[in-house]
Amino acid sequence: MKTLEFGRHQEPVQIRPRRENLPWLIGGIVFLALLLAFLLHFRQDANPAQQLTSKASRVDIVARMQLGLASASEAEKSAVLAITDKDSQTFADESLAATAGIEQDFQEIGALLAAVGTQREKELLAQFSEAFRTLKDIDKEVLALAVKNTNLKAYDLLFGAAASALAEMDSALSRVIAKHADSPDAKQVMLLAFGSRIGVLRIQALLAPHIAEESDETMDKMEASMGKEEMQVRKDLDGLTTLAKPLGDVDLVAAVSQFARYSEVKAHILALSRENTNVRSMTLSLSQKRKAMALCLDALNALKMAILDEPIAGVTYGRVPKPR
After folding, report:
1. Is the N or the C terminus of the chain less surrounded, counting Cβ atoms within 10 Å?
2. Is 222 domain-assigned?
3. Are the CB atoms for 289 and 24 separated by under 8 Å?
4. Neighbours of 211 (CB within 10 A)
């Protein structure tokens, strides 16, 4: 009821809604009723039990991602350390499969956080995404190198074919020395034969550190030393050939042949050593990979704690509520 004043006389006037305004009034009432029902429904959906379920689901996904990172890293390290191409490839495939699982989990939690996550949680997931992208790039390079195993193959040749050729050459030269023990050139034959044997041993001794070396500059120096030794060995063998030529020494021919075989194997070893795939993959795994891995784990740990710290009405997780 509204009061209207006209001078000193007051007369109560009653205002009633006009007939044409009734539809608007009814529509407003219906709208308010629907809004109230929606709010009540939303509040019911956001009850503590459902909030706990949502939180547990997100934490579980983060835990799976952490486990996936550990599995991928372990398989990657195994691929780097494996001694056969087959084993390296098997572990590389396992690492890639674990990484694919992490990517699926990332998509799943990304959708959940877009719906119910806080801004802080979304920022932490973005941090993980950036670190994970770097990690995948490093893994791709590491695994591609690891499966080649060029250093291991070089060691196999060094202690296999190269060592065999060296031993046969040494035995042949020993027989040459024995056969010329009573000749006038015995001393010269012995000096030249021993010079050849020592030269090949020096080359063999330089090959192992060359395979393990990471620096190209250091490898260049080693190869220069090997080149000088090889030239001297050939010079000594040519001298022996000149002295023994009238006798047609088959053992000397065998020694020269074995050195030619040794030189071919050595060239193959150096080529494999230069690729350096095992050394390079190990270096990447222990340096850049570790840093990227740490960033991924830090982001996931922070994300998990942020989800766990989401407040839920009436839930204290066993902690005493702080007084306001």
Report:
1. C
2. yes
3. no
4. 24
Average pLDDT over the chain reads 86
Q: Residue 301: what are its φ and ψ, rounded to 5°?
A: -60, -45
Count of domains for the chain: 2
Res. 313 pLDDT band, cuts 50 70 90: low
Higher pLDDT, 27 or 89: 89
Distance CA 157, CA 215 (A): 21
Give the DSSP H/E element, type plus range, for residue 90.
helix 85-116
Residue 28's contacts (CB-CB under 8 Å, 6 or more residues apart) are: none
Kindly report each contact of residues 183-189 with a partner whose C-beta sits within 8 Å and lies 24 or more positions away, as own/partner. 185/243, 188/239, 188/243, 189/240, 189/243, 189/244
Per-residue pLDDT, averaged over 168-197, amounts to 92
Q: Which residues of 265-303 are buried (b: 16+ CB within 10 A; e: fewer)?
A: bbeebbebbebbbbbbbbbbbeebbeebbebbbebbebb
∠ CA 262-267-269, nearest 5°, is 90
**The domain spanning residue 236 has which CATH number?**
1.20.1440
Range name among 28-37, 78-87, 120-129, 158-167 with the lowest pLDDT average = 28-37
Is 101 in contact with 107 (CB distance < 8 Å)?
no
* Structural domain harbouring 187: 150-275
Q: Does 171 share its domain with 209?
A: yes
Note the pLDDT tens digit of each residue in 256-287: 999 999 999 999 999 999 999 999 999 999 99
Name the residue type at position 49.
A
